[in-house]
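INFO  loader      accepted 1 record
INFO  loader      residues=244
INFO  predictor   begin
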Amino acid sequence: MDKLKGKVAIITGASQGMGASHAKLFIAEGAKVVITDINADKGEKYAKELGENALFIKQDVASESDWKNVVDTTVDKFGKLDILVNNAGITVAKSLFDVSVDDYEKIFKINQLSVFLGTKYAAQAMKEQKQGSIVNISSLNGLVGGAIGYTDTKFAVRGFTKAAALELAHYGIRVNSIHPGVISTPMIHQGGTEDKVAQFAKMIPIQRIAEPEEVSKMVLFVASDDASYSTGSEFVIDGGISAQ
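INFO  predictor   done
INFO  writer      dumping tokens
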């Protein structure tokens, strides 16, 4: 259990759902983890549960000044930054005709702008040590169509990942995207969607939705030195949906 021994990681949106699962596994594998979230109460409580190797910082991932603070605080506290997991994300369960400009801008800022800002400031810290791993959580909807706003931004994360991987490779910084399918998180259970999720699960070749821990194991691999020759790549974890 030491795949990340001596590593320092930042994970956004980590007070619940997949981000919380990633943070728990990273710490179990020997990392020191900075968890960030807009929800300070949940974040601080979860950091205490994780123990001395976790630090919570309140963050609006769409804020450039917040990103500067998170990266600077991480380096000041732990001496370096090895891994960034851009995990924070939202969706809005509305049709094209009902999505407002405010809705769309909010999705863009949290899902897409945050990945740009996080990569920019994390890479500035990582290039000084000539190594690093940035993991951008996209989605199955970064490969195939889905909800308006969510799909658009997740395709953008996929493209940005490839562009950043090419630019940062000579600094020893790897940038990859992960594309989860339907995962049991608060996001997919919003608005009483349980019946729809259950029906959709029947269409998945593996016949079930995934647990967050299953995605975390993929994130661990991509973030770790085990994936040392992978950059600009897409790692799909969708139960076989995209193979149909």
